[in-house]
Design brief:
Layout: E1 7-12, H1 16-27, E2 33-38, H2 41-49, E3 62-65, H3 74-83, E4 92-96, H4 101-109, E5 114-117, H5 122-139
Parallel strand pairs: 1-2, 1-3, 3-4, 4-5
Helix pairs in contact: 1-5, 2-3
Length: 149
């Protein structure tokens, strides 16, 4: 299925190398994607609230997020996302190096839609990002992009 408008993806990631790998992986996408990147949880909330330097930020169709973020960590951001009526329908994929059973369980309990451990090898990382993208944008039916309220 080809979308007419680019899909909006918010990547919340503080590692510049992982940001670059994600960008490269999405360049070969079967769908048009606008990738927006913020480096910490505070910036993520500002992006979603369209505040500070993000006044023209679109509502994301998908959020990719690490757990270990500076300032406000991924768990706190996830909790805020899933408690807010404006954002709770946005799918959130945790993309992290952690394989801790506690992190996995806690993420799902906080409302994560998916938990993926980042592979170390470049080719595997690219495949993971492309698989996430393909699943969420060609298999899953997402709600129409619109802010509530």
């Amino acid at each position: 299925m080809k979308y007419l408008k680019p899909l909006e993806v918010l990547l919340i990631e503080d590692d510049p190398g992982d940001v670059e790998l994600t960008k490269v992986a999405m360049e070969d996408s079967k769908v048009m994607v606008n990738l927006h990147v913020v480096q910490d949880g505070d910036e993520a909330i500002a992006f979603l609230n369209q505040s500070d330097r993000f006044t023209d930020a679109p509502c994301p169709d998908l959020i990719l997020m690490g757990l270990s973020l500076p300032n406000k960590d991924g768990r706190e951001v996830l909790r805020e996302l899933k408690e807010d009526e404006n954002w709770k329908a946005i799918p959130v994929v945790i993309l992290t190096t952690s394989t801790s059973e506690e992190d996995i369980l806690r993420s799902y309990n906080l409302g994560a839609n998916c938990y993926v451990s980042k592979p170390i090898r470049l080719d595997q990382f690219t495949k993971v990002v492309q698989s996430i993208e393909e699943f969420w944008f060609t298999v899953v039916k997402l709600p129409t992009r619109a802010r509530i309220g």
